Amino acid sequence: MYIHITRVKQTSERRSLATTRIIETLDTYYTLTHTPHPGLTYILFWIQMVTGALVSAQRAAALKDFGAFVEGAVEIAWEGLWRLYYSEGVMESAEAKGMFVPPDVRKLPSYIV
């Protein structure tokens, strides 16, 4: 995810392409590893969080060095972060598996890039 996001120029068309690539890559991973697919809402949530951490970092090092990114974005290291934005019922719903569903606990952060 980090690699796809940092390799694209900051245009909506390019971000859309990065998002598509991330989803395709994860779909392949879940299929090949027989890992249960967490759903589109879950994936898009994490794309938003990683993008936000990169925007917040505003450091060239974070865009070039994954280690620097991780050190500067400890808030996204918690796998349960989605629970601050979504109830389990919404995140586990059939609707959230197949399409993006907005959070029901609190709004996602907005980032202008």
Question: Would you write up a description of this structure?
Answer:
The chain has 113 residues and is mostly helical. Helix content is 59%, strand content 0%. It has helices at residues 2-7, 12-33, 40-57, 60-64, 66-72, 88-91, 94-98. The protein is globular, with a radius of gyration of 14 Å. The two termini are 17 Å apart.
Task: Give a short overview.
By secondary structure, the chain is mostly helical. The protein has helices at residues 2-7, 12-33, 40-57, 60-64, 66-72, 88-91, 94-98.
Task: Please give a handful of descriptors for the protein shown.
single chain; 113 residues; mainly alpha; 7 helices; 0% strand; globular
Give the helix tally.
7
What level of helicity do the residues show? 55-70%
Strand content: under 5%
> pLDDT under 50 segments (min length 5)?
none
Amino- and carboxy-terminal Cα gap:
17 Å
Task: Count the E strands.
Answer: 0
Q: What would the principal axes of the Cα set say about the shape?
A: globular
Largest sheet: none
Order of helices and strands: HHHHHHH
Class per helix and strand makeup: mainly alpha
Rg computed from alpha carbons, rounded to a whole number of angstroms? 14 Å
Mean pLDDT: 81
Topology, element by element:
Elements: H1 2-7, H2 12-33, H3 40-57, H4 60-64, H5 66-72, H6 88-91, H7 94-98
